[in-house]
Every structure is written in C-alpha cells, then in structure tokens.
Amino acid sequence: MCADPLKLIPIEKWEEIKSAFKCDLPRSLSVISVLETQEYINKFGLDYGFKVFCPFGDVNNGIVALNVKSTYYEVIIQSPKDDTTVLCEALRQTKLIDWTKNIEVPFAPQHIIACVKKIINEKNLKIDHITMTETFLLDTKSSPFDVSLPPASSFEVLSLEYTKLIDAKWPHRYPGSEWYIDLLIKAKLGYGLFVNGELAAWVFIKEMGALGHLYTLEDHRRKGYGELVLKLISNWLLEKNKYVFAFCVDGNKNAYNLYKKLGFKSVVNVEWCTFTKLD
C-alpha cells in the first residue's frame, strides 16, 4: 500500500512551518496565528485532535490541517507559494480527508481557492457556499489603546456558566457549537465586560487566533461596549506581541466601520468555501 502524501508534523516542529510562511505575510497571517493559538490551547491540556500535515513532508509545500470541531469538519489548506501543484497532488491522493462529509475550507486566499476548486471538480463534489471576507490587521507597532473601564465594571476571563448564553446568541451556531464555545472558554480565550456584576458584552480569540464573537446584549447596546471590549482585547494581544486581526464578512458595514475607526488595515481578502458530495 502506498504511503499517504500528507505527512503528520508534530507540534515540536511547527516552528519550521511558521518560518516557511513568514515570507508570505500578510497573506499567510492566519497560518502563523492558528499554529500559535493551537500551541496556547495545548498548554491547557485541551488537545481536541487538531492535526497538521505537510504535502510529502515538506513545509514549503504548504499545510493541510484537520480542525474538526464536534460535528463541524474543517480542513485548513494553505501554501506560502503561488504554485500549488504539489499541494493539489497531495490533496488528490490523500486518504486522510473524508470527502463524503460537509467540508469547510476557511480563510483561503485566491491561489488556495483555485486549488480547492480543482479538487472539487475532480472528486465530483459541489460547492455549497463561498463567503468573501476581508482580513483586518492592527499594526503590531501600534500603541495600546487609551481606555478606562466605566464605573462598577470589569473585564474578565469568561467562565463556563456563560457557554449556553453565548452559544444561543451566536448567529452562526451549529449542532455541536456549544462544545466549541466551551473549548474557547476553557482555554481562557473568551473575555467579558461585566457591568454591576452582570455580563454585558463579550469577545473571543478564536482557535485560529482571529478576534471574533463580538457581541453586546440587547439591554446594554448603544453605550460603546463593543468598541470598548475590542480595544481591551487588542491591548491584551499587543502586550503579548501577538497579531491582532479579524475577518470581516463582505457587507458587514458595522464591523467594517469599527475596524477602520480603531486603525485596523485591510491587508488581504480570503474566502470560506463549503462543499459536499453530490447527491
């Protein structure tokens, strides 16, 4: 039996991947950030099966990472090179990806989308949806935001008691997404603004390192809390010399205007591609 072309890269060797992708910034920002965030999650003993593979074991050929979140089957595909010939061939041959599932390929630049579309056609799959997003990045040399908390308020790591509420308010929730929120909270990647002891707004650092799940409860809106928590979490990341970035779905004017207001710059367009097997 032929060996699979996708070779598992242990976490101890992820630095080699990050080094290979640094030459492709900002396009490969998400690759470096997802690996750093997964390393952080692992420190809490929360290994949920995230695995990274390189085509034929060469980091310069790109990565294919299986990021299965309960019922959500996500395959991260990235390459630091425009030429994806070797990457496509590995995807064509591999037995590690279950092509019968509903699959999402997240934050894919155009050269990756072109590769994925080839595989979709060859394997008789169909595209369900493609979501266009802009990647907004805060300059790593930015000064921390000058912010102060309102009276009787605090900005704290979220606890598990808020999992159900946050999942219920998430517009993109899916069967099993409560597990995902639970994971992020256990990894201390969720932060909430509490006013008079009650949760008013929250923001998360997602498992790929991007900011997300920014939400203000209805009774606390129009008070600037969304902007406040975004500034506070950005300061936390800047202090740790981490990338501060977020994905903005095409047409989301509120998020777009907020990122622009706070000095984030649009650096690259990426797409989320979901596809499945033809009936």
Automatic annotation (TrEMBL):
Coiled-coil regions listed in the entry: none
Cross-referenced InterPro entries:
Acyl-CoA_N-acyltransferase (IPR053225), Acyl_CoA_acyltransferase (IPR016181), GCN5-like_dom (IPR013653), GNAT_dom (IPR000182)
In this chain the N-acetyltransferase domain maps to 147-279
User: A Pfam family name for this chain?
Assistant: FR47
Molecular functions (GO terms): acyltransferase activity, transferring groups other than amino-acyl groups
Query: Do you know which Gene3D superfamilies this protein is assigned to?
Result: 3.40.630.30
For this protein, the record's PANTHER family field holds:
GLYCINE N-ACYLTRANSFERASE-LIKE PROTEIN
Q: Specify the protein name.
A: N-acetyltransferase domain-containing protein
